Amino acid sequence: MKAVRYYGKNDVRIVDIEKPKPKTGEVLIKIGGAGVCHSDLHVIHDGLKFPQASFTLGHENAGWIEELGEGVTGYSVGDAVAVFGPWGCGHCHPCQESKENYCDHQAEIGGLGGGIGFDGGMAEYMIVPSARLLIPLGDLSPRQAAPLTDAGLTPYHAIKRSASKLTSSNFVVVIGIGGLGHMAIQILKATCASTIIACDVSNDKLALAKKHGADYTFNTTQDNVAEQIIKLTGSKKCAVVFDFVGINPTIKLGSKIIGLDSHWTIVGLGGGHYQLTAGTTEARADNLPYGCSITIPYWGARTELMEVIDLAKRGVIHVEIEEYPLSKALEVYEKLEQGKIKGRAVLIP
User: Fold this and answer.
1) In the 8-state DSSP scheme, what is residue 151?
2) Both 165 and 260 in a single domain?
3) In this predicted structure, what is the pLDDT of residue 275?
4) Distance between CA atoms of residues 241 and 162, nearest Å
5) What is the pLDDT of residue 280?
6) Do 53 and 176 reside in the same domain of the chain?
7) How many structural domains are present in the chain?
8) Which residues neighbour 240 within 8 Å (Cβ) at sequence distance 6 or greater?
9) Strands laid side by side in the 2-8 sheet
10) Crossing angle of the two packed helices 302-313 and 153-161, in degrees rounded to 10
11) Is 132 in the same domain as 160?
């Protein structure tokens, strides 16, 4: 079967490999769609190392059950399922609460999940090590559902952590209207009454944000964007800022517009940094306001993915996808790096 394989830093190839066979407790999935995520570029360009010298990429996956390993119950061949992305040990306290994204033994497992250390879904078939990692889709299309496992789940998890701040009196900012950001706008619109502000460097992506419910949009290539936002919010500034980019300019913007007793959530893996000075009374422009919490959430829980899938089944959220054949994977990565993907690219075997 065809698969998109990672062999090391900047070395990704489309190759023929043997179709896998499920062992006891495992499930073989026929892939219906595999989302292409910007974090793949960090794996590829940073040359992240895992015990497996090479593995199939693709951590946003959905499809149909092809074969059940011995002992697997509760599912039938042909069932449509989404694959929960972060794979934990399954038995520690966080895993028992379905928070495998925060597994106590993550560093010992040998990978973060299918497509990140273990074989993922950019192939015709994929092995899932346990049925607990599957979420039934019902009538939801696997190619439409695949990006929900990260592009939907990650912002949902981040937003849920800040639910107490997302009141009708407050302003919330989403920086970066890409695969995750355009879903964050929809989830916010569906779950809170706050005024939603979207920021991006692309007018096309800001139009997408407006389409999905943003109340205000700001192009961050313009001068004085922070001042423009504060003019809108007043001196209270923003109660919550979600940064789905994570580079120095977006972090600088977030630090300027975040208010008192707030949540500043940095999801993007852009490598930016913020110098925090503790214990000083010196008045400085870059001091954070009192009560501001900075968080760096990771992915989401299995139960949260169930909730995301339910929102999609009800038609409340919808991933904007661009479909490509598996054979175009390398070209899609180039387009993603150049910022030319609208919403989420999905590879179809």
Assistant:
1) T
2) yes
3) 85
4) 10
5) 57
6) no
7) 2
8) 162, 165, 166, 170, 172, 173, 194, 262, 263, 264, 265
9) 11-16, 2-8, 55-56
10) 110
11) no
CATH number reported for the structural domain that contains residue 272 in this entry: 3.40.50.720
259 and 280 belong to one structural domain? yes
Segments of the chain scoring below 50 in pLDDT: none
Same domain, 17 and 85: yes
Residues 291 and 318 in one domain: no
Give the per-residue pLDDT at 335. 95
Residues 287 and 164 in one domain: yes
The parent domain of residue 168 ranges over: 154-295
Q: What is the pLDDT of residue 162?
A: 97
Residue 156 to residue 159: CA distance in whole angstroms:
5
pTM above 0.85, yes or no: yes
pLDDT digits (tens, 9 = 90+) for 254-310: 999 999 999 999 999 889 998 877 665 555 556 789 999 999 999 999 999 999 999
Domain closes at, from 280, 295, 310: 295
Distance (Å, whole) CA 98 – CA 281:
42
Query: Residues 304, 270: one domain?
Result: no
Residue type, 127: I
Which residues are registered as beta bridge partners of 114? 118
**DSSP single-letter state for residue 146:** G
User: What contacts 145, CB < 8 A, 6 or more positions away?
Assistant: 33, 62, 80, 82, 137, 309, 312
Given this model, what pLDDT does residue 342 score?
Answer: 86
User: What is the C-alpha to C-alpha distance for residues 120 and 4, in angstroms, rounded to an integer?
Assistant: 9
